[in-house]
Specification:
Blueprint: E1 9-16, E2 22-32, E3 39-49, E4 60-65, E5 73-82, H1 94-126
Amino acid sequence: MSKRGRRNILTGQVVSDKMDKSISVSIYNLVKHPKYKKYIKKISVFKVHDEDNKAKVGDKVSIVETKALSKTKRWKLVKLLNQGLGQEEKISNPLDEIKSDKDLRKKTALEQRDKKDDTNADEVKSS
């Protein structure tokens, strides 16, 4: 019998534990863009076999590559590295923050404009 090749071992964070004996683990990688030579954060999500349903959302885990266990499951849970708070860390998108700041500024500008219109209307009525 031939010896198996070296298996890949990855470390990631559990993002879903809603399935029975399965979890979803996200892995973050920095990948260099071939043309622009800029590093881009790439997020990969793997389905992982968790026999004892030990891992919960937010936990940091180590996983190992294995034979195909189902249509999408090709990884097994090796160990829990540290327990999370029971919630996944939300990945914040900088564009969302910029958009919310824009909306806030727009709202305050509209409120100020309405206040000016109200003061002008009072002056016209008193004349």
